[in-house]
Amino acid sequence: MGSHGYAGLRHWVLGSVTESVLHWSKMPVFVVRQNINNFINPARPEAMPRIRHILCPCNQTRAAGNALEVAVSLAARFEARLTVLRSLESGSKADDQDLTAWIQQTAAAGSLDIDPVVRRGAAAVETIGLAKERRCDMIVIAAHHQPFEQATVVGRTTELVLRHAPVPVLAVPFHQNT
Q1: HEC secondary structure over 117-160
Q2: What kind of fold does domain 2-6+29-36+50-175 have according to CATH?
Q3: Which residue among 49, 53, 105, 175 sits deepest, i.e. has the most Cβ atoms within 10 Å of its Cβ?
Q4: Higher-pLDDT residue of 14, 57
Q5: How do the domains of the chain map onto residue ranges?
Q6: For residues 155 and 130, which has the higher predicted lDDT (pLDDT)?
């Protein structure tokens, strides 16, 4: 799906159609902002996108595990490098070994080279920063749907990453009741 990619105050608005689809979808939603134009060459619509590096932020939950499985599958398909990010809030204890063990338990990565990265800070900020720093081609993130009155809402980190990511984002839904 396309999203406007506005600047300023309008930048905080993901887009009512995209946001609605994201909140109700049971299938992954691929969001590309209008100002991201290096992913697919519009002059050659038959060309495959070049995906060389995928970033998958994970908080080691079932929802993140589902997103990791999708990221592993895409990385294998495109022969891309996969970086798995675990952002820790202050006071949290974990390290690369904890993340590596969780990755091995969660996803059948085979011979895929996965780079686990543990950083301290807000998850959305660290995800966006690492995507820029490592020049990732896309982000695969969990969209953990949680019940709220008659609808569901996705986590704040997912919403912030979708609004500010420098690359396309694949949001993998995980519904609380599944």
Answers
A1: EEEECCHHHHHHHHHHHCCCCEEEEEEEEEEECCEEECCHHHHH
A2: Rossmann fold (3.40.50)
A3: 53
A4: 57
A5: 2-6+29-36+50-175
A6: 130
Burial degree of 126 (CB within 10 A; 0-12, 13-18, 19+): buried
pTM passes above 0.85: no
Which residue type occupies 62?
R
Q: What is the pLDDT of residue 157?
A: 85
Give, to the nearest 10 degrees, the angle between helix 123-133 and helix 156-164.
30
The span from the CA of 167 to the CA of 159, in Å, is 14
Side chain identity at 145, as an amino acid letter?
H
pLDDT at 81 over 90: yes
Contact assessment for residue 118 and residue 18, using Cβ atoms and an 8 Å cutoff: no
